Each structure stands twice: as C-alpha cells, then as structure tokens.
Amino acid sequence: MDGPAWKVLLLLCLAAAAGTRAQDAGQTQFICTSVPKDVDLCTASMQSSGPAEDLKSTVLQLRETVLQQKETIIHQRETIRELTSKLTRCESQSFPAGPGGRRPGSKNTMGDLSRGTAETLAQLGHTLQTLKQRLENLEHYSRGNNSVQANSLKDLLQNKIDDMEKQVLSRVNTLEESKSGSRNDSEQRNRVESTLTSLHHRITDLEKGKDRPADKFQLTFPLRTNYMYAKAKRSLPEMYSLTVCLWIKSNASPGVGTPFSYAVPGQANELVLIEWGNNPMEFLINDKVAKLPFLINDGKWHHLCITWTTRDGMWEAFQDGVMRGNGENLAPYHPIKPEGVLVLGQEQDILGGGFDATQAFVGELANLNIWNRKLSITEIYNLATCNSKALTGNVFSWTESSIEIFGGATKWSFEPCRSAN
To answer: Which terminal CB of the chain, N or C, has fewer other CB atoms within 10 Å?
Structure first.
C-alpha cells in the first residue's frame, strides 16, 4: 500500500475509533483493512464483513418503509380531501336541529321518504281501509233513512275507493318488479293525496246528513306521515295571555308527535305543543321551551289545559282537571303574534308547511279551544269533567266549520267525557 492510501485509511480508522470510544469505551474493536487504491472506501466497507451487510440491509429496509409511508400519506390525503368535499355538500343541503329536534326548512314531501316507498304505500292502504269502514257506517245509516241522495253518494264513494285500491295494488306490484324513479314516486303520492282529500270531503258531506252537533267530533290521525293534517280557517289574534285546552288520545311511540302548531311570518314555532322522540312533552312560545309533566301515552283519553301570561312568562299545566306543573320565564313579555297559520297534527318548519313525518301526531284529538285569557282552576276542572258545556274558546272554537282536513285524516263523532270513559 503506498503512502497516500495508507494515510487516508489510518485517518478513517482513528476517527471511527475516537467517535465510538466516546460512547462505548473499551467495548468495541476496530479492524483496519487495506483496500485497492481506486476503490470507494464507503462501498468497500459496506461489502467487507457481516455487520456491514446487516447495516446495508437495514438501510434498504428503512428506505422501503419510507417510500411505503409516503404512498400511504398521499392516499390518506386524497381520502380526506374526498370526505371533506362530501361533508361540505351535505352541510350545504342540511339544517341544524332546533329545540325539541325540529328541523327548519325541511321539504314538504308526502310520507316519510326515509322509510321507503313500499311502506308509504302500505300506509296509504291502511288509510283506504279506514275510509271503507266509514263508508260502511254511512251505508248502514242510509239504509235506515231511505235517502236516494245518500245512496248515490255512497255508490260514488265506493267506486272511488275501489279505484284507489287498484292504484295502490298496481303501484306495489310495480315496485316489486323494479324500482321506479323518485320523480314518479312523488307524482304518484301527489295523486294519492289529492284523491284521499277528495274522498274525505265527500264522506264528510255525507256524514253531515246525520245532524251531528257542530262540535261533537274528533280528528283521527292513524299514521305517522307528513301529509295528514287539519288547518284552521282563521288566524289567531295578538295575545298577551292565553289558555289552550284539548282532549287527546294516543299510545304512539316514541312520542305522540305534534297535536298542534301555530306559525307566523318569520317564526315557525310561535306556539307549539309537541312530544318528539324520547323527550317529554314541550310547550313552545316564540321558540322558547317549557317541559310539561304530562303522562298521556297510554291509549286513553286525557284532557289537557295550558295557561300562559306574557308577564314574567308564567305558565301552568293541567291534566284531567288537576294542575301537574307550573313555571315562569317562558317567552316573557312576548305577545303571541297574529297573521299566522294554525295546523293540527303536524309541526311547521315554514309557514303552513315544511312537515316532518317523524314529528307528526298519531292518535285522536278533539275539542281544541283557545282563549285570549287565563282560565281559572275551577273553569279548567269543569271543562275536564264536562260540567261547563257552554265554555268554548273565544279566539278559536272547536267546530266543523272552523277547520279544513287534508291528506286522509278522518273525522268521527265524539262526546266529551262519555267517549273518554
């Protein structure tokens, strides 16, 4: 080995020995090996012995691991970018839930679309069965009264119901064969809703021939949909105090839904009674919430009354004539606004619409009356025990001429207290 090569190799050995001696003094040996003049010292050292081979293998493995992690990071970035894009689109099409789980701005489509078209059509079939039962009752009545007009209407209604049954059956068969587009489903539902509403109006006209008192009726909402409802023909006036009373019967779960809701321009939850999901029943004024201690989900008739005054937002809740709870700070000093829409059986997300099937009322209700004053405890007890038959709401009274019915909700005779027992 000539002079320069020997000196370079010696310097490398001394540097390595010095560096390692600082870490593990006396525990490592260093062997200096001569190499040809023109060979790369680093390459020669990597190829010279067993430990060097291990080091080379480790370096290659680390390099491969780094490349794999780089590919994984790139893939994860793409995935995160795709998920972020989807989340942005979802957020742009959805709205946050308000108090009690209400969702402002939801679309007013027929039925609960998340449940599927087949189940919605099955619900419509159930509605048709209810209408047929009413028609049979009317047929029995017409036999006892020999009314040519009643028989003519009965035959017309029977034909209409038969046609409806054929449409529903045909639709179900089509669904079993192949899935149809959402546009066709929506058009079919609109036609069914229109026909059900027409049938209900005709049956109501026929039932009026039985000379039933104007306030002796109940509304039945047999299905949890977003197209069965009733609507008051007149708005409520501005009110600084109120009492609302009604008879109610339901065993729906979870929650009975929304017996009534009153919306005004700019505020969909001006006055609402709702029991949604597993929450207790709530009374809302101007979107402020009071939780009510009612227990009514037992399939029996119950009489409910709620009083409220704008001063300090004081409220009281009565079930079957007995006070069950009270509180304050429910929309204090906020008068109930006029020029609104009173809907029975649905919760409004927009003025007069935006119904959500999951918040629909399921059951029966009757004798909804509203006063612009706070009734006394004695007056409320008399209403619950039917000892004050002449006491009716002065801003909204329960009469057939004061409401319109849509979507197949049904109307039956009802006698307070007698029907409840």
So the answer is: C
